[in-house]
Amino acid sequence: MELWIWILVACAVAYATKLAGYFVPGKLLKSPRMTRVAGTMTIGLLASLTVVNATAAGQSVVLDARLGALAVAAVALWLRAPFLVVVLSGAAAAAGLRMLGWS
Amino acid sequence: MKLRESPAFKVALSLSFATGLYGVSFGALSVASGFDVWQTMALSLLMFSGGSQFALIGVVAGGGSGIAAMTAAALLGLRNGIYGMQMNAMMHPRGWRRYAAAQFTIDETTATALGQPDPHEQKRGFWTAGLSIFVLWNLFTAVGALAGDAMGDPKQWGLDGASVAAFLGLLWPRLKGREPWAIAAACALATVLAVPFVPAGVPILIAGVVAGTLGWLSHGRSDEGMEPDVDPYGHGHGHGQAHGHRGQD
């Protein structure tokens, strides 16, 4: 139930952010600095989410099969594979490494 | 011009299929992260912003709190506010159209509109991309969620590896040039250092603050990191070209 509340709050915030662009006077958002912060934040958050999903287990850093998924996904992206192929190769790498006994 | 001959219309339709395939991954990963099918569908219908949706489920999957997940999603959605401003300046929607346009304001629709030179085609590109992506994104989310629900133990299928790959896949198109790599590396390092000391989910927010501070203090491209996940004009990783269809407002 608590999760539902946060989902709905997050959806409301997401819509309010989009709508703000249409109502807030252009000058406020138009500053190149605001645009830059929104952009660098996108990069930083996605980098952090990648690392957390690859190495964190609660409050400890663990090196396991997910690292293999990260490496294989990087190779797939470098070879310009489409998104779905990248995701599937990540899953295959993690599942394969587990079958070989690397947790 | 007939609809079938409209360049923006064609771009928008093919883009919606490519984006829809992200929806399958989102649906399956969301269910694997502990969300039920209805919660997953609510996110695609109401939030409708891929990066933020993946962030929300990613934080929860890592054991983070609801408020940390909501904050990460909100910060990742900030760029949609900038897109809204650009689209408002371009299309001047009035009345209910403004509220509908806001929901459709994401990476892909903005990129489709900005890539068209003719004002009429810009509008058509935005609305066609918005509607078709919205329909397919939700349809494919449902397919992914139902499939994920039927799969059982997510670890056995390597779905945790899939979400690592998904986040890297979202980050990748934005890593054009040395500066974004440096920002990504600094934030990755900050995250690893923070994990043992703060509750789950918080390291992501710390990285967001680091990235925001770096952007505030440094001077570089003002549209850094604003590349769409799926480039409607298929320019791949060329730095200059991606910059080209972003620069105008």
Question: Features of this protein?
Answer:
heterodimer, A: 103 residues, mainly alpha, 2 strands, B: 249 residues, disordered C terminus
Silhouette of chain A: elongated
- Element-level helix/strand string of chain A: HHHEEHH
Low-confidence stretches of chain A: none
Helix and strand succession of chain B?
HHHHHHHHHHHH
- Based on secondary structure, the structural category of chain A is mainly alpha
Structural class of chain B: mainly alpha
Task: Describe the protein in words.
The complex is a heterodimer of chains A (103) and B (249). Chain A is mainly alpha-helical and 103 residues long. Chain A has a domain at 63-103. Chain A has five helices and two strands, in the order H-H-H-E-E-H-H. In chain A, strands 1-2 form a two-stranded antiparallel sheet. In chain A, a hairpin with a 2-residue loop joins strand 1 (56-57) and strand 2 (60-61). In chain A, helix 3 (32-55) crosses helix 4 (65-78). The two termini of chain A are 32 Å apart. The longest helix of chain B has 33 residues, at 119-151. Chain B has one domain. Chain B is mainly alpha-helical. Chains A and B meet through helix 1, helix 2, helix 3, strand 2 and helix 4 of A and helix 1, helix 2, helix 3, helix 4 and helix 5 of B.
Question: Can you summarize this structure?
Answer:
The complex is a heterodimer of chains A (103) and B (249). Chain A is mainly α.
